[in-house]
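Worked example 3 (structure in, sequence out).
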């Protein structure tokens, strides 16, 4: 029974994934596979922007990428094997999200099996507890429930089974184990960048061991070196986005962000708080960093009190070092729970060993803390994620399809959308429902602020934020980093209209002027009111249309109400 407990726990907490709909990047990837979207090819589903202005600029010129997107933007990931498995989903299950999620769950079971095998060999006393914690770790929830993130499971499965084979080769020196390890590592690297974090455990084993065998790291060093060369030659990587940093091309930007991102991840994992708060509660980011600072001496004290024997101490040293090294590549983007999947293997080993010793010695404080941080709070996260995904699915569908057919063949100008999801993914959802795409889709503001629209004459209007600045939230900065500032007077030509940057604060526009190059009647002006894209009329010349801050989809799901009727006034 104990042998199957981790798998039973995994199946129970991940069961809601089976009724979770496709969401966000799933929509875009399926739109590409159906030829509705052409910004990338069907075998490059993880290339969201390729860095070539000549190829990418038309998708800013006509949309759906917003006007402030950097034309040289690059967000491209090397994941050919994971792309293949997405094709398998479509071939085997068609439009069924259930089939795709069952597919993901199979990979999750295989990953827990690899971890269970390693824990049994490395930490026999704590193996069961560590395996249960690993199965429960909420860093795996997104990878299971979000098909676009399943690539992390592929990397975890192949990477951990590669570690199993590598340790067997290190101990017995048999060629078949080496071949199996190298084969698994190659498949892991072909699955996702997360594989680099899993391979870090091989390096950590030698760095922390007394009986170092440096030749054992040679295969991994060679593979990662070849992978890095292939990554560069094939044009993969990130550029121009504040969301994703390329440590090799932008080392200073990476190093500037890495310490606080690491502390936030470490602190939230140590306390069971979701690291996704970095995105949803930006005013609490320094509190998350403070948790990391406080957790460092806390872990040191708990480790010392556990009084592990020398062999266990040595094992935990390299597993914890491996977890730290596994986190480093993930610091290229903002803190979120799903980044910790590679690190969770080593981290759950340490937590399991500490909890096992606390149970033996009846240390109630440690047991209470570990129970809340690694059992109770992760279960809550597992339960909340499906609700969030369903809210996004319902919200975006309602936004673009409720009473309309996706604004087919219309020239749509989104004056304001406080929620990124309908603004950026709405056209993909409409395409997947069989609707023809809008002729153009221009998003003027995605800032979480009220805006005013002032009509200056027949062909011009101005849009100004009531508070804050444009391109100053994580979702906006995904398309353009602050280090690529705008200046007053900058002009961005779009199909049918022209955006002229007005007042600027610190490189961030606060207001823009829009020059219409076609008759007003040719455009459909809309505003996301918290529930749907509502059609609005531009105010008459000399009048102002006030668009209040609308609630985001998640806020509506929690009971927030959409604003009332809009009226124009003269200033």
């Amino acid at each position: 029974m104990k042998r199957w407990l981790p798998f039973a726990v995994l199946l129970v907490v991940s069961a809601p994934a089976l009724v979770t709909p496709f969401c966000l990047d799933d929509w875009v990837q399926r739109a590409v596979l159906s030829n509705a979207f052409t910004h990338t090819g069907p075998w490059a589903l993880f290339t969201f922007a390729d860095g070539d202005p000549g190829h990418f600029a038309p998708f800013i010129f006509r949309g759906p990428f917003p006007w402030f997107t950097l034309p040289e933007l690059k967000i491209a990931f090397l994941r050919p094997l994971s792309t293949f498995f997405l094709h398998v989903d479509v071939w085997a299950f068609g439009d069924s999200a259930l089939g795709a999620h069952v597919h993901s769950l199979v990979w999750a079971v295989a990953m827990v099996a690899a971890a269970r095998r390693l824990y049994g060999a490395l930490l026999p006393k704590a193996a069961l507890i560590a395996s249960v914690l690993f199965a429960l770790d909420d860093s795996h929830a997104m990878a299971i429930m979000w098909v676009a993130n399943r690539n992390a499971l592929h990397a975890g499965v192949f990477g951990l089974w590669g570690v199993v084979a590598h340790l067997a080769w290190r101990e017995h020196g048999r060629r078949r184990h080496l071949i199996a390890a190298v084969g698994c590592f190659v498949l892991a690297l072909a699955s996702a960048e997360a594989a680099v974090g899993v391979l870090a455990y091989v390096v950590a084993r030698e760095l922390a061991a007394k009986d170092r065998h440096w030749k054992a790291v040679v295969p991994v060093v060679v593979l990662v070196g070849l992978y890095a060369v292939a990554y560069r030659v094939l044009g993969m990587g990130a550029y121009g986005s504040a969301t994703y940093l390329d440590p090799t091309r932008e080392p200073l930007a990476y190093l500037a962000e890495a310490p606080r991102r690491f502390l936030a991840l470490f602190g939230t994992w140590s306390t069971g708080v979701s690291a996704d708060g970095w995105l949803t509660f930006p005013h609490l980011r320094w509190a998350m960093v403070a948790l990391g600072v406080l957790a460092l001496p806390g872990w040191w004290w708990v480790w010392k009190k556990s009084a592990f024997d020398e062999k266990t101490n040595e094992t935990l040293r390299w597993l914890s070092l491996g977890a730290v090294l596994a986190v480093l590549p993930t610091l290229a983007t903002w803190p979120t729970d799903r980044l910790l999947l590679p690190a969770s293997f080593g981290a759950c080993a340490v937590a399991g060993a500490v909890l096992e010793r606390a149970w033996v010695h009846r240390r109630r404080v440690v047991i209470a803390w570990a129970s809340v941080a690694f059992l109770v709070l992760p279960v809550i996260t597992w339960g909340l994620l499906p609700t969030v995904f369903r809210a996004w699915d319902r919200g975006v569908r309602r936004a673009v399809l409720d009473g309309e057919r996706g604004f087919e063949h219309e020239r749509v100008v989104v004056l304001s959308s406080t929620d990124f999801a309908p603004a950026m993914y709405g056209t993909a959802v409409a395409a997947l429902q069989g609707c023809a795409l809008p002729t153009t889709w221009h998003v003027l503001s995605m800032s979480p602020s009220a805006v005013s629209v002032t009509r200056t004459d027949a062909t011009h209007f101005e849009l100004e934020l009531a508070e804050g600045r444009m391109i100053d939230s994580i979702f906006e900065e995904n398309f353009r980093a602050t280090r690529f500032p705008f200046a007053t007077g900058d002009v961005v030509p779009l199909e049918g209209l022209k955006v002229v940057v007005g007042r600027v604060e610190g490189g961030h526009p606060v207001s823009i002027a829009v020059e219409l190059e076609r008759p007003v009647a040719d455009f459909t002006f809309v505003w996301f009111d918290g529930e749907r894209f509502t059609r609005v009329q531009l105010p008459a010349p000399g009048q102002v249309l006030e668009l209040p801050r609308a609630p985001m989809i998640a806020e509506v799901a929690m009971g927030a109400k959409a604003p009332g009727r809009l009226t124009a006034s003269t200033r």
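Notes: The chain has a mean pLDDT of 91. The two ends are 74 Å apart (CA to CA).
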